[in-house]
Structure formats: structure tokens, C-alpha cells
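Q: Could you fold this chain for me?
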Amino acid sequence: MVAETPLAPLKADVLDKLRQVSTSTLATQLYRRGFRQPTLIGLKLLSNVVDGFVGEAYTMRFIPAREDVNTPDPYRSGNTLQWETIENVPPGHVIVVDSRGDVSAASGGDMLMTRAMVRGAAGFVTDGGLRDGHVLGDLPFATYAREVTITTRAASHHVADVQTPISCAGVAVYPGDVLVGDRDGVVVIPRAIAEEIADPSLAQEQMEAYLGTRIKGGEPLWGIYPPSDETKAQYEAWRAAAADASGSLPTSTASDFLQAATPIPVPETH
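A: Sure. Below is the predicted structure, expressed as C-alpha cells.
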């Protein structure tokens, strides 16, 4: 475990804004800034109760277990970093595990996930497997894994480090990075640009909700997606009308934004 350097806190509204944005939108915003692959490919949300999470990364790194180090009784082997992680993760943080993509043994199970949930963790993400999938499916806690596997962690994994830079599903994750998960997957936002990306991501989410409604209404892609200057002006006019009707600019999710706003006028075609 490396010595932790205190990180400057994120502004209070950054995570709230990111909560309203899909992982697809975030991946697009990151792509525009040169981050081509921020997505943890192959990981699936196991919970049927929650739809995702937003949280700061609290990292854990596994290496292969070795018989002279990892005895059949992990509690007495001296390697208790997994339990220490669960008991020390700050509220609102997501535990992110580098399991080397190895699903031969689980990164954890229902007891550890339940304890992390009760302690206020935002979620648990591993590029390996998790146990007790039938329990995790009913747990109101965001758990992501490549597979459900029944073999206990100590059979294949040794916990080597906590709160150090890791690779998860081939993506670099540093302690304090911001992770966002939904039913499509998980995306990693470098902490240094989390504040920068929050507002344009929310703006894109809201605009695309408007554009999607026009596409559903029968309009062609040309000039709508991506939007032309004319379409952008029509969106801003519609948004201003919605603000006048409600007394303020909308700050809710894109779907709520559309439902609460005035009907979208479809421009006449000639």
C-alpha cells in the first residue's frame, strides 16, 4: 500500500451533474479531449435494483496467488488488505479492482459487497468475477464484473496493493479518478478534467434528448444529428421558451427536462 497524498476535493456539484449523464455521452466528451478508450470493456452490472453509480476511485490490485504465501486460511495468512479496503473505503467512493481479467476466482462476494454498501461506498467494480450473483442481483448496490464465478478469491488472487494506480479492463485508473456507471457499462474520467467535463456533458445530454425527440418525430438525420447551426438555434429558442414557462432553466435529467418543457415545434419543410 502506498502513502496516500490528499487530493483537492471536487466541487460539490460536479458529481451531481455527472449523475445526470450517460456513459455514452461521457465517452464522447472524453474522445473530444483525446481519450480514445475510457470504457471498461466487458464489465456487466449485476444489480437488478440500481441503475449505476458515480464515485471517486478507491483502488485495489491483485496478483496471482502463490501456495507458499497464500495459505488455505486467508484470515491467518497476514494478507487482510481486502478486508481493510472494505472497512476503510470513504463514503461515496467506488472500489475498483485490478483482477488482471482473471475470472477463475471471485474478487469478492455478497458479504463484502453488503458491508461496502452499508459503509456508504458508491459501488464495486472488478475486471474479474464476483460470487453470489443471485444475491448481488437483489442488492441495492452497484456491482460490476466480467462474470459471476463461485470460486473463492484466495484460490487465485493475492491482494498486493491498495490505493495505487491500477489497470482495470485495460484502462488506467488512478486513486481519485471519477468513475460513472450505468446499464451500458463503466467509464473512467481522469480526476483533473472531471470538473471541466461536467457542464458540457450535461449540455450534450440535454440537447441530444431534444434531438432524439425530433428524430422520433420523423425528421431525417441531416442537419439534426449532428445538429446544424440552425438546429442549435432552434434548440436554444425552445430551451428559452421552456425556461420562461417554468421560471428557470432546467437542471434535472434530460428525460425530466423534456417532459417538463413545452412541446417541441417541428420546423416546416418546404
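A (continued): Residues 196-260 form one domain.
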